[in-house]
Design goal:
Order of helices and strands of chain A: EEHEH
Structural class of chain A: alpha+beta
Number of helices of chain A: 2
Oligomer: heterodimer
Largest sheet of chain B: none
Helix content of chain A: 10-25%
CATH architecture of chain B: Up-down Bundle
Largest sheet of chain A: 3 strands, antiparallel
CATH topology of chain A: Ubiquitin-like (UB roll)
Shape of chain A: flat
Radius of gyration of chain B: 18 Å
Radius of gyration of chain A: 19 Å
Structural class of chain B: mainly alpha
CATH class of chain B: Mainly Alpha
Number of strands of chain A: 3
CATH superfamily of chain B: Ferritin, core subunit, four-helix bundle
Number of domains of chain A: 1
């Protein structure tokens, strides 16, 4: 992810699309483009051909700092036995409505 | 046939022939993303052609269908601009197939889509509701085609020495063909009476992008092609042969 693009190759961009129903932009894939404007245009052609979206974000892949898969155990396993962190034990009064 | 049907047929032929031409890039685009973009544009154009052919068939009322219009007419019965049937290469390329040049593709798309942006703009308020509806749908598609082509043209002109030279060669080669946009033939005269005004608007749009690209716009002069009258280049029959052979081999086939 963090290696620079080889010379004569366009940098990689991550594409996020917000669907009609969705509130947040969701990651849907990546593509190569020379700059941000071109990446947006290409994302339109590659990822929204079937009316998937109403808004597009593109982000240089190189700007993403990712966790190391090797650290998976120490990062995520400690949360396994802490079910009390899920707010499912609360009773929500009817008057609150959708939450 | 009525003048309006003649003009609609011309618009349909323009869309179909450029759609077919650009579809040649499908699977051969310079990069995957462009391959998809060009194929999208072809599908937009073929969609426009279908709507127009269906309407022409209805106006004619002689049993024509969109399929007979697209697949069972010979070159002299097509009324598209000559610009749109040319292969993707400049005049000096030894063979059209071997020497497909993306600069020609882009410059042609730019010249034509900026023209159609103006034409659909006028037709959007046409009294005939079917035509104005088709115009309203098509103008959105064409606006995107125009942005796409202008973006690439600026990148080519402002890019490397080679991309600049190829873009300039494509502009020089294709510019004379744009004269046909302003030629006065009966149906166009009635539907688009003010070509002088359109021509000025078109030049303003085109020159802005050409300048930003660092290119020169040559004077359009010389022979004025007559595709709108059914007089085509030798390239037209090859294009139609590829497009029509299957339908002609299996007339009426369903799938």
């Amino acid at each position: 992810m963090s290696q620079p693009a080889p010379p004569n190759e366009w940098p990689l961009w991550e594409v996020f699309v917000r669907s009609k129903q969705g509130i947040e932009h969701k990651h849907c894939g990546s593509l190569h483009a020379a700059d941000a404007q071109q990446a947006l245009r290409m994302a339109r052609d590659v990822y929204t051909r079937r009316q998937e979206g109403v808004s597009i974000w593109v982000i240089p892949s190189a700007a993403i700092t990712a966790s190391d898969p090797a650290d998976k155990d120490s990062l995520f396993d400690p949360a396994k036995d802490k079910v009390y962190r899920h707010p499912t034990f609360f009773v929500i009064p009817d008057e609150v409505g959708h939450m | 046939m009525t003048t309006l049907a003649d003009y609609a047929l011309h618009l349909a032929d323009n869309a179909l022939i450029l759609g077919q031409r650009n579809a040649e890039w499908c699977g051969h685009g310079p990069v995957l993303e462009e391959d998809l973009a060009l194929a999208n544009h072809s599908l937009d154009l073929i969609g426009q052609a279908r709507l127009l052919y269906q309407w022409v068939a209805q106006l004619r009322g002689d049993g024509s269908t969109e399929d007979t219009l697209a697949y069972f007419r010979d070159p002299e019965a097509f009324f598209n601009f000559t610009l749109l049937e040319l292969p993707h290469c400049t005049a000096l390329a030894p063979s059209a197939r071997a020497e497909r040049d993306y600069a020609v593709t882009i410059v042609r798309n730019f010249f034509f889509s900026s023209y159609m942006l103006l034409v659909w703009g006028v037709l959007q308020s046409h009294a005939q509701p079917q035509l104005s509806a088709i115009a309203a749908k098509s103008i959105k598609e064409v606006r995107y085609h125009c942005q796409h082509a202008a973006d690439w043209l600026i990148r080519f002109g402002d890019g490397t020495a080679e991309s600049h030279d190829r873009a300039q060669a494509a502009v020089d080669f294709l510019m004379p063909y744009t004269q046909e946009f302003w030629s006065e033939w009966p149906a166009a005269k009635e539907v688009l009476p003010d070509t002088a005004h359109l021509k000025n608007q078109w030049f303003d749009m085109v020159i802005d992008v050409i300048k930003e690209a660092g290119l020169q716009l040559p004077e359009a002069s010389g022979y004025v092609t007559q595709g709108v009258l059914g007089i085509h280049t030798e390239h037209m029959s090859y294009l139609l042969a590829e497009m029509q052979s299957l339908a002609r081999q299996h007339p009426g086939a369903q799938w």
